[in-house]
Batch of 2 targets.
Target 1
Amino acid sequence: MTSGSVPERARVFSGIQPTGETHLGNYLGALRNWVSLQDGNDAVYCVVDLHALTIPQDPGVVATGTINMARMLLAVGVDPDRSILFVQSHVREHNELAWLMQTVVSFGELSRMTQFKDKSDRSQFISAGLFAYPALQAADILLYDTAVVPVGDDQRQHLELARDAAIRFNFRYGDTLVVPAHHITKAGARIMDLQHPENKMSKSAESIQGTIGILDSPKEIEKKIKRAVTDNDGEVRFDPAEKPGVSNLLSILGAATDTDPKALAHDYSQYGPLKKDTAEALISLIEPVQTRYNNLADEDVLETLDQGADKAREIAESVMERVRDAVGLVPQNAGG
Ligand code: TRP
């Protein structure tokens, strides 16, 4: 599979789980990329609430998390006039295709998924859904004749499985599904934990001090950046292997200001000013997002999601018709 350029006007699909707070790593690594891919492509973005259920969840948390994730996507610039934004469970075809995908991926393949191994190691109750998670993800992607799936490197294995599922399906049943060709990882910045810069910034970080939430106040952002670990040698240089903390600050400042972090390093001889500028740049990047987020009413988010689901369903229904026919499911209402 290649990472690379996007073909002319491609169908783009990606999904994000509604659990946990959106942080800087999500935003700079993935969501900003979603926003720019809206230009010149047919982008479809999905809040994958069914995926969240693979781990036991409080129903209220799922509901508010879903609305708030959609609100966040709108706040960062997903534009419902230029792309489709919807909730996975609103388009029932995801479930239907997921079942068929479970019949073309094998027990062995699913057993080899590293995300399943990690999550099941950490869980007491390992649901069948957690095991089948990648089949649902394959369905998400294949339901829209997707060409391009912008995801981080941690999803590479799932995307490869989706490709294999499509290829196997087409081999069994004839050419039916579009095999997604692209996997984009390079475009987004890789943002690391501020306290443990050898780890990716993540929702499950050990210390919240290492993770900047998109809804953190300017004061909190300043404090977290100020306390970010650096090192003792005092030199500002972009060198992620030797100087992970300092390099992470340069990456963040670079991503926030659209500048090459290596070039930025030459502007600084001390950590203090680098931290100050990084915090300032972040605050001016995030503040407008927060304002949009806070001004979006639930009803408006829900209405946008309804309209998005209608548009998504139109595509999904036609692909599902093709799929049912290929598999040999007898059509309904075909009697005289
Ligand atoms: N598994 C993805 C993640 O955790 C979320 C996801 C679900 C997804 N379905 C998708 C991503 C389809 C891309 C395409 O990040």
Note: The longest strand covers residues 11-16.
Target 2
Amino acid sequence: MNTFAGIIDSTLREGEQAPGVRFSRQQRTALVRTLARIGVEEIELGIAAPGYNHLPDLVSEARQLAGERCRLGLWSRCRPEDIRFAARCRPDVLSLSVPVSDLHISQRLQKDRAWVRETVAASIRQALDLGIPRVAAGLEDGSRADPEFLVQVAGIAEQAGAFRVRLADTVGICSPAAITALVRRLGNSVRIAIGVHCHNDFGMATANSVAALEAGADWLDATVLGIGERAGNCRLEEVIGFLALQRDCSRYRTDLLPGLCRRVAAAAGMTIAGNHPLVGSSLFTCETGLHQHGLAVNPMTYEPYDPCRVGARRQLLFGLKTGTRAIHLQLARRGVNLSEQQLRRLVSSVRALGESVDEEQLLRLACRQAELPPPC
Ligand code: HCA
Ligand code: CU
């Protein structure tokens, strides 16, 4: 954790690769503004290639919105015309991507390892010669590459002047232990910064990103709600939440995460599950007597952080899963004390309702039971 440099949000690059997702100009600039306010250190704004005509304007608009602390990046393949296009957009960072697994090199590109070695060096030099201030090398399918070759290409990138290499777990097959080993191996062979780009095909992307950080990675990629190819990527809200609320990292505004996620979900035509980590609407809704009792004694018993850190509020529901003690506690907190008999009657009528009631409804029922004026 001590070398942690930051998070690269790739919602506008990898996220827009998700099927059916295409943001409007206004949605893109709003996203940049919020990401910068949250404290994200780098934003990958898109794929630099001729035809992506919105990019030059987006980079300059984003520059006005993002402030000093947030770098603006573009991603591109190792193609001379794409790199020239990227340079014309004037990003702070260009992440050049090159496959390093034999599967991609020989079958997809019909090239060989020598081609990768030469191309990565030539592309980094071209980008630097064109005046791009920082150039990074993305090692695509790095988790399925021959590790010897992976570190060799990373070393070539370092020598050519890259400031960062990024290990891509392109099809999300790493476990936390596997990515730990790869990051350590990279860390032992290069002195430049190391980033990771984790996919979520087996639901491991956030865990793998955190494991990579703990193994010494400096940067990690994430997208809002994890949108990206297939099962997507490391979720920005999860990783920021974890760093801020479990690792005391004070760089990020977690309270802005739910709004950000809601806007991206709307723009991407998605719905956010109620139990989605950090931003789901029902994370702090509790219906069981056991947990309600714990929460009343000390919220830390059943909540890992104060709901207000993510702009949420605890909500209690009462029904079949709630016992007499929890209902009694709740009413006492609101200044209503029922006799034992009244309480028993209330509990059975609440349970008989068939659906749970919230705190206000419970209070009204209690008042009726005790023949007190509502809302007592
Ligand atoms: C992709 C490419 C990439 C590149 C990552 C990187 C991946 O699949 O579209 O350049 O670091 O996952 O390998 O996103
Ligand atoms: Cu990817």
Note: The chain has two domains: 6-268, 285-369.
